[in-house]
Amino acid sequence: MRKNIVAGNWKMNNDLAQTQDLITDLENKKNTGNAEVMIAPAFTNLFSAFNALKDSPIEVVAQNMHFASNGAYTGEVSAAMLKSVGVKTVILGHSERRAYFGETDQVLAQKVDAALAADLRVVFCFGEELADRKSGNEESVVSSQIKNALFHLDASAFKNIVLAYEPVWAIGTGETASPEQAQDMHKFIRRTLNSTYGDNIAESMSILYGGSVKPANAKEIFSKPDVDGGLIGGAALNANDFYAIVNAF
Ligand code: PGA
Description:
Blueprint: E1 5-9, H1 16-27, E2 36-40, H2 46-52, E3 59-60, H3 79-84, E4 89-92, H4 95-101, H5 105-117, E5 121-126, H6 130-134, H7 138-150, E6 161-165, H8 179-197, H9 199-204, E7 207-210, H10 215-222, E8 229-232, H11 239-246
Helix pairs in contact: 1-11, 5-7, 10-11
The structure holds 2-phosphoglycolic acid.
2-phosphoglycolic acid is lined by residues 9, 166, 171-172, 210-213, 231-235.
């Protein structure tokens, strides 16, 4: 059985006090559905978030990390540092990292390797830009993003990877992929996995959809058979909205 996951990517929002307030609000909510819940606060707030949620089923995850284990990489954070504050999962390859910080498939392959070597679970993000979709290239873009960053891995590594399909044109724009577009791409992703790693891995991977998921559209998107959850940006910053999405499962 694939796991359903709803992950809140807080991006560069919420200082320490705001993080604590939002966590308090989240803890007052009930998870009445059947999805695991993750939140990804900023690096500076991971430690306090982890401590606040120690006894909670809400998992605190990181938004990024560097591939090196330590050294002269000013401003960066390593897998070991994340682990030392209780983090067990890291988001890698978010489109904002790719677009604004020049993260290439090659860099991401190194980050994935470093995270898995440190026993971190990876939420690996990818997705096409609007121009790719307009020109009908969305599947070739997505398959090369996945293959370049992940297909050097042994089959056994995939149990520690969650995939997150996030069409760039739907992130923060209010324009969501239709449930059918999400389903078609998720099915294509599973076929791509199947062709190299076989049916067991393809069917066991959780594939999240991200891009303007809101309480109003979550149920329909999550009802699709190959959509196993969501990576939520804007709507994750409000506890009512986030739990309306969590409970859409
Ligand atoms: P959004 O962001 O929900 O605000 O579109 C999603 C994401 O970037 O993960």
